[in-house]
Amino acid sequence: MSATPEDPAIAELNDQIAALGLSISEAKKAAAPKEEWDPLLQQMLALKVQYKQLTGHDHGPSKKEAPKSESKGESNEEASEKNKEKRAKKAAEKAAKEEKKRKQREEREAREREKLEKLSAAATKDWSHVFGDAPMIQSSSKSEDGINKWTKIGDLKKELEGKKVVVRGHLHTSRGVGKGAFVLLRSSLYTVQCVAFESNDVPSAMIKYMTNVPVESIVDVCGILTIPEKAVEGATQSEVEIQVQSYHCVQKATAAMPFQMEDACRPDTVKETDVGAYDHEANQSEGGRVGQETRLDHRWIDLRTPANQSIFRIQSMVCTLFREYLLSQNFIEIHTPKILSGASEGGADVFTLDYFGKPACLSMSPQLHKQMAAACGGFERVFEIGPVFRAENSNTRRHLCEFTGLDLEMAIMEHYDEVLDVIGDLFVYMFDGLKTKCANELQRVKEQHGFEDLEYLRKTLKIDYATGCKLLREAGIAQDDYDDLSTENEKKLGDIVKEKYKTDFFIMDKYPLAVRPFYTMPDPNNPKLSNSYDIFIRGQEILSGAQRIHEPALLEERAKAWGIDVSTISSYLDAFRNGALPHGGGGIGMERVVMLYLGLPNIRKSSMFPRDPRRIAP
Amino acid sequence: MSATPEDPAIAELNDQIAALGLSISEAKKAAAPKEEWDPLLQQMLALKVQYKQLTGHDHGPSKKEAPKSESKGESNEEASEKNKEKRAKKAAEKAAKEEKKRKQREEREAREREKLEKLSAAATKDWSHVFGDAPMIQSSSKSEDGINKWTKIGDLKKELEGKKVVVRGHLHTSRGVGKGAFVLLRSSLYTVQCVAFESNDVPSAMIKYMTNVPVESIVDVCGILTIPEKAVEGATQSEVEIQVQSYHCVQKATAAMPFQMEDACRPDTVKETDVGAYDHEANQSEGGRVGQETRLDHRWIDLRTPANQSIFRIQSMVCTLFREYLLSQNFIEIHTPKILSGASEGGADVFTLDYFGKPACLSMSPQLHKQMAAACGGFERVFEIGPVFRAENSNTRRHLCEFTGLDLEMAIMEHYDEVLDVIGDLFVYMFDGLKTKCANELQRVKEQHGFEDLEYLRKTLKIDYATGCKLLREAGIAQDDYDDLSTENEKKLGDIVKEKYKTDFFIMDKYPLAVRPFYTMPDPNNPKLSNSYDIFIRGQEILSGAQRIHEPALLEERAKAWGIDVSTISSYLDAFRNGALPHGGGGIGMERVVMLYLGLPNIRKSSMFPRDPRRIAP
């Protein structure tokens, strides 16, 4: 169904195409970057497609409307007679047509005049309160409502229909369509669509401005909340949109984006393997995929993806739940020093520094100090959340050189099962809490990274090390009861346990004495075993702990058995000589808990600014 | 009022003194250390005093009872007649007396036989379940009730009268009195008196054991809770005591105490001055006073005093309240790296280290990363509790080389007063919370260190820097509006403000631009001022903060104005080039908050294991 060329819609389209053409050629003349005029070109192409649909033929200044059929062949004899009539008729038709055209032209000219007048009025009008770059926010004034003026994007709901709202966010995307602009604004996990169409209150320059503000700039939008006919695709607040009344850029992005946010938000296509070496080079960007290393190089941008916004909200909740539970169990929070004297603690894997002329190192765990506080200092139950440093040159997907330790240490009355009871219940509390308090965040992580919900039992499964080894052997995997478990065998055991007990989370107890630190309390019945345990999520270790030796004589004996020069640990031993409570505890790798709970393939995804042997920035 | 020598009480005393004499001479013969027999000697002296009170003369084997008045002078004439009668009477009396004595002797011998039989029975009986060194707690078994068997010393109340209770604690003091032992057991803030007297169920060896276990050993006491006639002095649980049924040492202190707990707990006599240099030497112990440095050398013991137990419980609560409030205001907790690349951040005052061959340093504040998270990374409101490192060679009472930073950073909509509103309310929340949740702990700190309760207003007082300077000048103290405030003037201003506004806590706003870091947002109206503030408790700074510059161009300009080589901060600048929210925040020194809230004279008292230029252990 073709419209006639005289249709005002066609005329309008012609005007728009001409205006766009002008803008583009001006932009090209001014040597503007392609990013600036390319969207205009896209708009023009869209308009031309629309033109063809309406008129049935391509648009183009060269294709003048030629009178149809006039030059088509007829015999001269027949023609001579008919010609007079036809000519008269044609002349009349022509006159009528011209009259019509004249009228249309006049109408068009009137419209254009009107438009010019409007534009002229617009040009002389001060639109700065309607759109444009806002002055830098320097705390020069406060609005009447103060911060109550703003609504959070996440709070935009149907119930606000018809209400005026003001929102601030990163400009996620913008596009112009005809005389309208469609903008997606993003804040934390949420996005909303804002739309504007040219009108008395919306000058065309504003539409142009809206489509030209660089993505990721900070924008303030004021408008009326409406409910669109169909849900807005690609916006989390899909049931609503904002009819823009004013649009201001609060802070303008001035550098090119190192990658597109749309790419950074794309769901994983390949699930990275989570065992084995981590290859920094392989994690540069490639094609549309934004590589892990590229993301980290520009972490301040990467953190804006809904998945990352969620991961670090979940991380915050893990710490909150950890503390909530332990405080309810009469633990207190402590802060122990990260700079320790000497370099005695861990040999080669320790970062060393100069401390006012004395050798010092960074703490590899708050072990000694948390024991001093809980067992010797009389605090009985303590925890700490703090950085832990490992100078280990491990380039894997699960090692960091600086991570956050969730440490706890407690006096025991008669058996270290008291510690395991606390830890088991602690994790159930954390897992339950995450499910209820971070439902939205979990969903957003799932959308990008896709994971299976963690399975766990309400009474945490505990198996002995020997049982674990037996399970492996039954599955045809070589594992001696007194040898250490390889990472690979840990994974395999995790699979076996999951299959057999339907849990991704379990405790393994009674490790061989030989594979644990010297301060581990030996098993009372089997001298080759110890009162120690690891805890696993999805077959990877997240906690290591034990009952500790509280008798200085035994501590000394065990240190000697390990070949440790007792003089180097004399201050550690001294702490137990003036009365010390029996005690036990454990250290949890916080980033590992987050990584494994969410089934992430790389611990760098659960550390906000990760440190590995190759990365020390940003 | 003297008792007759034949009184059974006297006989009993004689027996006791004889037995003690035997014990002492045996101990001396066995060359036992004085500590062992000295208490017995003290007991014997006490018994002898008792003897003198009862009989009216000193006790002693040499002083036989001489017949009284018999040899007193009478005239021979009168005497001859009376003598016969008297002699007959005397003979009868003597016979009666001897009969009486014989009976008494027989009774005494019967008692002694009985006692010997009991002792013999006791000697063959196994008393190990009643007293003695317990086997090392190695988790070899669990009792039926598990940990429910034990009652916390702090939970021992009148309501448990007549109930059997089991408690564990440090042996605070012990003393033997007669056939009894008085023991004070301590756990965290609380102490209870346990008493035992020799009886069928309490052998004398147990009394001896109880008075001989070294102080500070860990002891399990089982007994019946009773209510003493008058409150027990020196015990926090003064309304109750435990009649000991069994007494076991769970872990024995094996080293001499570097100072006595009683001395360590003594109320401060001299209030140390809180301004000026800290003298390590002067803080060694002297006389009965346990010096600050001696305490820190043996911090694991010093932490046991009720005041220290309270200080670190209050510290834990400060962190809990800080987080509680910020989480309720939609902040999230983050963890930023403490190892930073290069040594650019702070010049000389930074600890440097080698990071896999690259130069690195320890973070002097999470400034850049918290800005990256809040303003650039889209988290909008973040906080962090973590270590902060300063390689400053400052030996004062208020500087540490490693302390705990309570940091927050938040996006602002239009004015940094939004930050100050959050911070002001945060502190009121913390101060209120401490008062209600740590009432007991505050009392215990006060008992030792004595402080005035913090005065603060419900709407935090905010004065401009210029106003502060004017207040000083009005008090005759030289202070220019654009010069930095000395520590001394800060203190003086604190006094003036306290006098004038009745508050120990206030915000000072609008600092001169020249005395703040380059990233501080300049004031919009006066180019010599800035949008920055400090917060004071009792005239000492505990927080420093500001609106930060979020525009990279201005940031660069300000850096240049400070003479900073822009190439060294390029990554900092880059973070603001892809869209950054206007923002502000602050950093709080946690130990300072605790120190000043409690009016402590030295920041080392509010750091569990302090680090200063001279101390890196324990």
From TrEMBL, chains A, B:
One term under GO cellular component: cytoplasm
EC number: 6.1.1.12
Reactions catalysed: tRNA(Asp) + L-aspartate + ATP = L-aspartyl-tRNA(Asp) + AMP + diphosphate
A biological-process GO annotation: translation
Entry GO MF terms: aspartate-tRNA ligase activity; ATP binding
Segments for region (Disordered): 52-119
Domain WHEP-TRS stretches: 9-65
One Pfam family in the UniProt entry: tRNA-synt_2
Ranges of Basic and acidic residues composition bias in the record: 55-118
Origin: domain of life: Eukaryota
Enzyme class, first EC level, given as a word: ligase
Coarse class of the protein's main subcellular location: cytoplasm
Annotated keywords: Aminoacyl-tRNA synthetase, ATP-binding, Cytoplasm, Ligase, Nucleotide-binding, Protein biosynthesis
Subcellular location: Cytoplasm
Annotated PROSITE patterns: AA_TRNA_LIGASE_II, WHEP_TRS_2
Aminoacyl-transfer RNA synthetases class-II family profile domain residues: 312-618
SUPFAM superfamilies: Class II aaRS and biotin synthetases (SSF55681), Nucleic acid-binding proteins (SSF50249), S15/NS1 RNA-binding domain (SSF47060)
PANTHER family xref list: ASPARTATE--TRNA LIGASE, CYTOPLASMIC, ASPARTYL-TRNA SYNTHETASE
Family to which the UniProt record says this protein belongs: Belongs to the class-II aminoacyl-tRNA synthetase family. Type 2 subfamily.
Protein name, entry field: aspartate--tRNA ligase
